[in-house]
Design a protein that fits this description.
With 560 residues, the protein is mainly α. Helices cover 72% and strands 1% of the residues. Strands 1-2 form a two-stranded antiparallel sheet. Helix 5 packs antiparallel against helix 8 and helix 16 runs antiparallel to helix 17.
Length: 560
């Protein structure tokens, strides 16, 4: 449990514990970077492996889909087998699949490697949370989550920069570098973390299959809705020799099946919990107000926080003319802001409650996004971009770190793995939903605003439609070639202005979503279901989760 600020001070963490935190944070950075780095190295991959657009899309998305699909299952495995053991297995698998990706002779092998990388990443993220939550208490827990959370924001921003630099050598290095880093992190985890406690329970295989099916299809639908169509099929889905070209769209079908699978999963888990038959996800965790409402805030933060990162590089490269490396360099300001928040969070942990840090972070994020929307144009100065992204990054560092602290504050120690899996799934689904909403808004605005501007240039009908489709379907990458031809240079100028307008609306929308998350924090508090010592609280004889509420240092069975 999170200790009250006014309570007896806990023993300060040891150097060994802080070094363990560094190892865990590096593990998280490794998997987050691999979510964003492929966007930058995709062009040389396409050229080298001679893959088509469908293959390129699966190289990007297979990682995110398998990652999101397995978070609940791996969170539960963390409780059963021990967080450290599952973390190490995930790191080892991530290294091996990175080697497979680096040596891939064709697109099919690379897609398989990316899918397996996502499986490994799903083992790393929730177990890293469980390890941090079990290792630190009181003020130190807030400090530890400040480091852990700032790592996510910084890694997401540094991925494109790292990818741009490694692409100058070979795209294969973007995967090959993971081997050395994973080996270093494995050594750190073994050296600085003791074997984790584990619960001697079985794993609900049917529940695991339902959760993987539901979360996997849901993340597929959110990621691919704009590509294949939400209701009617607008682009055939090709998977090997199979082609889906009929209506309804594969996205609509995925949403229907995902909804059914997740409803069945919830009903099964509730029935197993009621019968004391060891569910994969104990739905009684949602009786904890801090856990239930904190996960809702996590979902909203994911929607508003990471969607902008999907469209920002497009504006930087095709509206402002930045190279891929320069666009990655611009995002360093976001990473710097996130690290700044980590340092500030250390000194604030004793005096500023976690919920207040979350609120402060959301305010700063919203302010940074509003500023980005105000300055969005075709000739925005680099220093204005730096200011907006730094402010936004500071907010990310505070909000991302401490919302996790809040969610896990009242969770019993031996349920930390499944609770971390639920929180990680909420974060990833929020991110996928945010990307779906923001990219749809961005490209819809780009298309409609460009069409209006082309009409102002005297272009209409089929010609205007072809030019609009050329720009939108290339995600703006056709703008430089249009600018090089004097006959279409005005079209390129109109496309840049339309892209700036798209970023402006996307920034304001993200800011509004984060304000909504800020309002939701008013309902996040530790109530009777989650306050130690009160009736019904976890860890008391009357609490619904009392059978699993063993302290981390207590008599749980260690890993073998």
């Amino acid at each position: 449990m999170e200790e009250p600020l006014s309570g007896t001070a806990a023993a300060p963490p040891t150097t060994r514990q802080w070094l363990g935190l560094i190892a865990v944070s590096l593990g998280v950075a490794l998997i987050v970077v691999d979510l964003t780095i492929v966007n930058v190295i995709l062009a040389p991959i396409i050229e080298d492996l001679k893959i088509d657009s469908a293959g390129a899309q699966w190289i990007q998305e297979s990682y995110a889909i398998s990652f999101a699909a397995l978070l609940l299952l791996t969170g539960r495995l963390s409780d059963v087998f021990g967080a450290r053991k599952v973390f190490l297995v995930g790191l080892t698998m991530f290294a091996l699949t990175s080697l497979l990706a680096a040596a891939a002779p064709d697109g099919g092998v690379l897609i398989l490697a990316r899918f397996l990388q996502g499986v490994a990443a799903a083992a790393i993220l929730p177990t890293s949370l469980a390890l941090v939550n079990a290792t630190f208490t009181g003020r130190a827990r807030g400090q530890a989550f400040a480091v852990w959370g700032s790592t996510i924001g910084a890694a997401a921003a540094l991925g494109p920069l790292l990818g741009g630099r490694l692409a100058d050598l070979s795209w294969r290095w973007a995967f090959g570098i993971n081997l050395q880093l994973a080996a270093l992190i494995v050594v750190g985890a073994l050296r600085y973390f003791d074997a984790s406690p584990r619960s001697r329970t079985r794993v609900d295989g049917i529940g695991g299959a339902l959760s993987a099916l539901g979360l996997g299809l849901l993340s597929f639908a959110l990621i691919e809705g704009r590509t294949y169509g939400w209701l009617e099929t607008i682009e055939p889905l090709d998977i090997g020799a199979f082609t889906w070209s009929a209506s309804p769209s594969p996205v609509f079908a995925a949403l229907v099946v995902a909804t059914a699978a997740l409803v069945l999963f919830w009903l099964r888990q509730a029935a197993l919990g009621k019968a004391e038959r060891e569910p994969l996800m104990d739905v009684r965790l949602f009786s904890l107000r801090s856990f239930r409402n904190g996960n809702f805030v996590t979902l909203l933060v994911g929607v508003g926080e990471f969607g902008i990162i999907a469209v920002l590089p497009l504006w930087l490269q095709f509206a402002l003319g930045y190279s891929a490396f320069e666009a990655g360099l611009a995002l360093v300001a976001l990473a710097a802001g996130s690290f700044f928040a980590s340092g500030a969070g250390f000194s604030m942990a004793a005096s500023v409650p976690a919920i207040q840090q979350v609120r402060m972070g959301l305010v700063l994020e919203s302010a940074g996004l509003v500023l980005l929307g105000v300055i969005a144009s075709t000739d925005t100065a680099w220093w204005l971009i730096t200011c907006a992204l730094f402010l936004y990054g500071v907010g990310v560092g505070f909000a991302t770190a401490q919302v996790t602290n809040i969610v896990l504050a009242d969770v019993p120690a031996l349920s930390a793995g499944q609770a971390s899996g639920i929180q990680s799934a909420a974060r990833e689904l929020g991110s996928a939903l945010g990307i779906a909403v923001l990219t749809t808004l961005f490209f819809t605005t780009l298309a409609t605003d460009l069409e209006d501007r082309l009409a102002g240039l005297g272009l209409a009908g089929r010609d205007a439609g072809q030019l609009r489709n050329t720009v939108t379907e290339s995600a703006g990458s056709a703008i430089p070639s249009l600018a090089d031809d004097p006959r279409t240079a005005p079209v390129a100028d109109a496309a840049r202005a339309a892209m700036a307008r798209g970023l402006e609306l996307a920034s304001y929308t993200c800011a509004a979503l984060l304000v909504l998350a800020l309002a939701a924090t008013l309902f996040v508090q530790r109530g009777k279901a989650g306050t130690p010592g009160e009736a019904g609280a976890p860890g008391t004889s009357e609490g619904p989760l009392a059978p699993t509420a063993e302290p981390v240092s207590g008599g749980g069975a260690g890993e073998h």
